[in-house]
Design brief:
156 residues; 9 strands; minor pseudopilin epsh fold; alpha+beta; single chain
Length: 156
Amino acid sequence: MKRNRGFTLIELMITLAIFSFLVTMGAQLTASWVDSAQQRDAAGLLKQGISRAKATALRNPGGALNSWPAAALCRSGQVLKLYSVADQASINCASTSNILWQTTLPGAATFQAGGTDISCVAFNSRGLPVNGSASCTTSTISVTVGSESAVDVEII
């Protein structure tokens, strides 16, 4: 008796169904993994910027007094910039001079405090957050990317 070699149509269909299921699940898990990595990266860069802003404020190169801002960390689009602020000067996040540090954030990241987008964080000469302008926040910043749960970054 002669046996046929190969696979039946049913066996091929089952194999293709299992393969397509695994590919679909892998794509979804990969997207979630990428979002999570970008979120951790964005939160880390924000923490680094806040730490640098506090250090600059404590050094107080502009000679700011009392509760006036000594340093400001500004966000413009997906770019963070650290500025030293002179005594009793207003914060100008659009300035292209006096930038002490800057970094580019992941494109998909959003930064919010109290449900609104943040544009800056300012610190006085004691390293405490202050309202340097109407757009500066003094509360915890939530970093989100895609459908990931928010990561909170403390300012203090």
